[in-house]
Amino acid sequence: MLRNIMSVAASNIVGFGTSFIINFLLPAILAVSDYGYYREYILYTSYTYLFNLGYNDGINIKYGGRELADLDRQAVNAERSFVTFFQILMFILMLAVALAKQDMVLVFFAVVTFFDTMRTYHQNFLQAIGVFSIYSRGNILKSLFYIGLLLLSVFVFRSDNYYLYIILNILSYVFMYIYYEWHFGKHFGYRFTWSKAGKLNLFRIGFFILIANMSLTFVANVGNWVVKWFYTIEDFARYNFQNSMLNVILLIVNAVGMVFYNIIAKQRENNTYMNIIKQTSLILGIIGGLAFFALKLIIVNFLPQYLPSVSLLSVTFIAVPYIMLSRILIANLYKSRTSEMVYFRDSLIYAGLSLAFVMAAHFVSHTMLGVASATSLCYLFWYIYATELKFPYLKNTGREWLLIASHIPAFYLAANYLNPYLGALVYLAFLLGVVLCFKEDFKTIWGTLKN
């Protein structure tokens, strides 16, 4: 397991570097309003997966916990052929709408949707069967390809046209699609095989998972939408800037989450194992707070126009442990231990309540800080509901509650009332105390990860 985590994490660290460069370079060369429009496109791309209508999620559920050697290669090939044909139809429909509206951003969105949904199909399939080496190499190559084009555009062509950077984003998805198709052909052949058998069931199961996943994605973006609706494009750019900084850190979270779905699917009845995953995610999320101080230092010294984003980032960073738990454990437990209808219902309720709560925070505070604080609280409340009520075998111990209660003020005070250097030292001292209190737990976690 540790090898798989390290493999995927290594590829995501390269992706981390790419995102880090992009998220600091583009705000420096684009006008604040242009960067806002670019981030608006990126916000739209977070919903491209909706256009597979649940097929890819059905693939994830169907093959979760299975091994590559045991698969019916003809059936797998037929499923890939079907999704390719289906996504081409979706692309044609989306492109027709975009051209009718004469909207270039919609044209870009139609193009990227085809390549991203196909990428998601391959990633869901590989994640389900536990094959992470292909995913890892692809991520590294994509990151190198993307950053190469980006640096060429910035330093050679010296372009400040945000359309160009949207096109570069699309090309990175094209590259990833070609890479996955090439590897798929090596294992399963390139032959186009048509069959409708069993496809409706994949849509049926996957559609509810899709909407549930969409609801969780919506919670992650609910602050962005509220700011987009009620604030200026410059405010939106600054709010989205801090969100993009948070997403850079969460690249590592996604790496761990991909590995753990396959493991959770195999360890369906092992509650002790689930508690180890919970504690691992909680502690790693708290340790990850150190990254905030490096980001703050860079913003203060090199991107002063985004200084208002620092206080927002300090609030959203408090939620990192609970975001990790939501993505790594809670979502995967819903997929593997409950029916798709239960996951669908609970996620929709969570999304609706989160929207209402964040909207209320806006109308009460009329500040982006209020919006960011409400979003972080949504993650905390979801964590409490899942561990204390939905999955009672995950109930928090007294020490875990003490860790949660001490982490929030310790991080917030160090992040907002001290300079980056002193703040990092104070928070590091807090982390050393955590290590001492959870010394035996660290040994258990390490032993589990090595197996």
UniProtKB/TrEMBL annotation:
Transmembrane ranges, per UniProt, are: 12-32, 134-156, 162-180, 201-221, 241-261, 282-303, 309-330, 342-361, 421-438
Subcellular localization? Cell membrane
Q: Which keywords, in A-to-Z order, does the entry hold? A: Cell membrane, Membrane, Transmembrane, Transmembrane helix
A GO cellular component annotated for this chain's UniProt record is: plasma membrane
> Is Membrane among the key words of this record?
yes
Main subcellular location of this protein, as a coarse class = membrane
Q: How does it sit in the membrane?
A: Multi-pass membrane protein
Protein name per its UniProtKB record: Polysaccharide biosynthesis protein
* Species: Aerococcus urinaehominis
